[in-house]
Amino acid sequence: ADMYNHHTVEKKWQKIWDDEKAFKTENDYTKPKFYALVEFPYPSGQGLHVGHPRPYTALDIVARKRRMQGYNVLYPMGWDAFGLPTENYAIKNKVHPKEVTKKNVARFKEQLHSLGYSFDWDREINTTDPDYYKWTQWIFLKLFNAGLAYKKEMPINWCTSCKVGLANEEVVNGVCERCGSPVVRKVKSEWMLKITNYADKLLEGLNDVDYIERVKTSQRNWIGRSEGAEVDFRIKDKEDKLRVYTTRPDTLFGATYMVVSPEHPIIDKYKDKIKNWDAIVEYREMASRKSDFERTELAKDKTGVVLDGLTAINPINDTEIPIWISDYVLMTYGTGAIMAVPAHDDRDWEFAKKFSLPMIQVVEGSEGPVDIDAAAFTDVATGKMINSGFLTGLTVEEAKEKVKDFLTEKKIGNRKVNYKLRDWVFSRQRYWGEPIPIVHCDKCGYVPLDESELPLLLPEVDSYMPTDNGESPLAAMTDWVNTTCPCCGGPAKRETDTMPQWAGSSWYFLRYTDPTNTEALASPEALKYWLPVDWYNGGMEHTTLHLLYSRFWHKFLYDEGVVPTPEPYQKRTSHGMILGENGEKMSKSRGNVINPDDIVKEYGADTLRTYEMFIGAFDLSASWSDDGVKGCRRFLDRVWKLQTMLDKDNDGYSKDLETKMHQTIKKVSSDFENLKYNTAIAAMMALINDFYKKNSITLGEYKTLITLLNPVAPHITEEIWEIIGGEGRLYEQSWPEYEEAKTVESTVEIAVQINGKTKVTLSIGKDDAKDDVLARAKEALGDRLDGKNIIKEIYVPGRIVNIVAK
Ligand code: ANZ
Ligand code: ZN
Fold it and tell me: Where is the motif named 'KMSKS' region mapped on this chain (predicted)?
């Protein structure tokens, strides 16, 4: 055979697959289904990154394999195309974001096409398409009508230079991640979604899905459910009470001071009574410049100021204790105030040490005395109560329950469950997003548009520049903004904020099931058949935002009767990053970015696919290696050259490789399902070494090999299939079967002895008959038996032949 030419072969098959609509998915409800999903990309100006093909190839492998196994497979692709980078590019280059998006999508699509993915391109979706975002808006209206969307004054991170609200993750060391300008807090009225109403359902649902453990754990931590109590502390000689949230009400006798957040309203209320007001103001100033993350970092040096003039009374023993303000207490969690128990809490301990505040030990370890002067004692599992009045002698768990009952009975507190999860800030003051379909009327308040008014199109604007006062560019479009109230017909104004990028991706997997439906986001039949997604793979960085948001929307739509399953995704896996050769993240500034186009050009798409699967364990990050790429190309060349040693007449397996064939089918089949693409490829590499060793391969062996390899390297294998006269197309063939019994080695090496001394070894079938084995043993001994008198012939099955002779 000629050298393998990836240029012609890959183009040829991509065209045939397109022409034949090879991977078009029908909604054929009679077949068993398999819905494979990868996170749709943001079509950035940089084009495809080598990180993209890793998950796309992995699920393409599974999709192709399942098709060969007779499943009706849905493996779709689309564009998550609203968002900031496109808008910023549009501003800078004075082009419409629509045009930018179109150009970027075309480039991405061409790149993905060149990699030979089996996506059904007839189901392509784009979140910026009005036929698509009509339904994003429709879901928002449903949320609004269900009372789950509301407007609220919120302090947001405001970049003074970009003039945009930033997410917490976008603020690094108090400055804007993008431009480095200082970020200030600005109070703005924002749309919020009540994801917190679904906190328990989002937690419980995790028990019913097959997500990798670290995804479940990080969702659980993000939701952060904790059980505790609220307790009221009286302020001495004042009317007010200071309410705290604690997960350790058992330690109430050990509370030696209180801490309130610098933003706590009690501070302003007693302004006149506070003697060190200047110090308080100064401290609050400083705290306002820090992010919540910086404030609560355990390692940081504790700071704070005492509220001079106010004290509190511990309700359990009527002791008077001081009240401090410190930034380690957040206004956004619990009640914004805590009772400090320095003997048993690490942060309180550090604070007490720094300001020489008293400590009272109230829990004792089972292993004798503990030194609370050296560190806080935080063990709850074995602890017993001491110095605690009616609680003394109880275990921590018993004491918790008893105090909770006591607090409830005396009406000075109650049981309380808290969550770390916050409501979802759903407004963006930007142009390139879905318009929020709400108008504001002075008489009627916030009024939703009628469903028939959707999609509410994004109007053309003169400038995409955000405004100085923090309003969206849409606010300048007075023609569009001024409208009539759907409720009373009076004058009203449209909402000018747009939705965040997370909106379109919160339900896109529903749309793929029925992407052109004009009556509904998808038909009930299509949803019933395809849901849940059987396997969803995506980045770890999307575990807490996208994955949680989309589960929230799905659960809401389930409660509304729109979707048939309580969970959107049955299985979730995650891939590791591909790093540069130096083991660092690929970036322009490091100059270590690999362009997938270059690899496809030089070595071919099949090589890139094989390499990205062979690079290492799928869930771990891996460093790029040019040698690794070349090695994978060599492997494919070797598969190609097997044509030169083909035994065309044998459509079965050769006897000596039969076990190996069955073993390889078994291993590759199961590895593909278990994210072990690298070991599957290694098994195929080992198999072809065996063909090279004997310089021959049967037709049956070759067909099986290329069928197994087809999901990884679809072009070269399809070409070989055609050359060796395979019937039809390779992608239409059945997945190879193996027999369990034939995966175990059936031949054994036995020793052939004369008078107990081994002379030769012999390869026999485990089940071969005794007479047959003895005959072959004597033949193998050749002239060694000449002139000898055989007395006895012994065969220990599968182990030894011993000829006793004189
Ligand atoms: C007294 C106490 C004693 C506490 C003890 C802990 C250990 P999780 O599990 O995260 O819910 N806390 C409450 N509100 C806070 C706020 N707004 N900012 C910072 N810390 C706050 O943690 C609950 C615990 O975190 C609460 O229980 C409280 O400290 C603190 F030995 O109360 B604890
Ligand atoms: Zn009105």
Answer: 585-589
User: What is the CA 588 to chain-centroid distance, rounded?
Assistant: 25
Q: Rounded to an integer, what distance in angstroms lies between the CA atom of residue 529 and that of residue 71?
A: 13
226 CB within 6 A, ligand 1: yes
Question: Residue 166 pLDDT more than 80?
Answer: no
Q: How far apart are the first and last CA of the chain?
A: 58
pLDDT of residue 179: 83
Give pLDDT tens digits for 616-630: 999 999 999 999 999
Q: How many whole angstroms separate alpha carbon 15 and alpha carbon 594?
A: 26
> How far is Cα 515 from Cα 77, in angstroms, rounded to an integer?
11
CA angle (565, 568, 573) in 5-degree steps: 140
Of residues 617, 526, 620, the one with CA closest to residue 564: 526
Q: Residue 440 Cα, ligand 2 centroid: separation in angstroms? A: 8
The answer, yes or no, to whether any atom of ligand 1 lies below 6 A from the CB of 245, is yes
Q: Which CATH class is domain 746-805?
A: alpha beta
User: What's the length of the chain?
Assistant: 806
CB 638 within 8 A of CB 688: yes
CA of 155 to the centre of ligand 2 (A): 28
Residue nearest to atom 2 of ligand 1 (CA): 248
What is the reported pLDDT for 673? 97
Q: What is the mean pLDDT of residues 517-536?
A: 98
Q: Calculate the alpha carbon distances from 736 to 44, 335, 700 in Å.
A: 40, 62, 11
More confident residue, 735 or 745: 735
Under CATH, what is the fold of the domain 6-129+502-579?
Rossmann fold (3.40.50)
336 lines ligand 1 (CB under 6 A): yes
Domain range annotation of the chain: 6-129+502-579, 148-194+424-494, 226-418, 746-805
φ/ψ of 397, rounded to 5, equals: -60, -45
User: Distance from the CA of 245 to the center of ligand 1, in angstroms?
Assistant: 7
Give the three-state DSSP class for 745: coil
pLDDT band at 165 (very low <50, low <70, confident <90, very high): confident
How many other CB atoms sit within 10 Å of the CB of residue 743? 18
Asked if residue 64 lies in contact with residue 619, where contact means CB atoms within 8 angstroms, the answer is: no
Q: Is the CB of 64 under 6 A from ligand 1?
A: no
Which residues are documented as binding site for ATP?
588
Strands 622-623 and 578-579: parallel
Indicate which atom in ligand 1 lies nearest the CA of residue 418: 11
pLDDT exceeds cutoff 90 at 297:
no
Q: Are 640 and 717 in contact (CB under 8 A)?
A: no
* pLDDT confidence of residue 79: 98
Alpha-carbon span 428 to 470, nearest angstrom: 10
Instruction: Please classify residue 752 by burial: count the beta carbons closer than 10 Å to its beta carbon, then call 0-12 exposed, 13-18 middle and 19+ buried.
Output: buried
Which of the four pLDDT bands, split at 50, 70 and 90, describes residue 298?
A: low
Smallest-distance ligand from the CA of 346: 1
Q: Regarding the domain with residue range 226-418, which homologous superfamily does it belong to in the CATH classification? A: Valyl/Leucyl/Isoleucyl-tRNA synthetase, editing domain (3.90.740.10)
Main-chain phi, psi angles of 386, to 5 degrees: -135, 170
Centre of ligand 2 to C-alpha 489, Å, is: 6
Is pTM beyond 0.80 here? yes
Nearest Cα residue to atom 14 of ligand 1: 334
**Residue 475 near residue 36 (C-beta atoms within 8 A):** no
Kindly state if the Cβ of 330 falls inside 6 Å of ligand 1: yes
Which residues have C-beta within 8 Å of that of residue 674, sequence separation ≥ 6? none
437 touches 448 (CB < 8 A): yes
**Gyration radius of the chain's alpha carbons:** 35
Task: Indicate if ligand 1 lies below 6 Å from the C-beta of 247.
Answer: yes
User: Ligand 2 centroid to 428 CA: how many Å?
Assistant: 25
Q: Residue positions in the annotated binding site? A: 588
- How does DSSP assign 600-661, residue by residue? HHHH-HHHHHHHHHHSS-TTS-EE--HHHHHHHHHHHHHHHHGGGGEETT--S--GGGHHHH
Are the C-beta atoms of 49 and 55 separated by less than 8 Å?
Answer: no
Ligand nearest the Cα of residue 487 is: 2
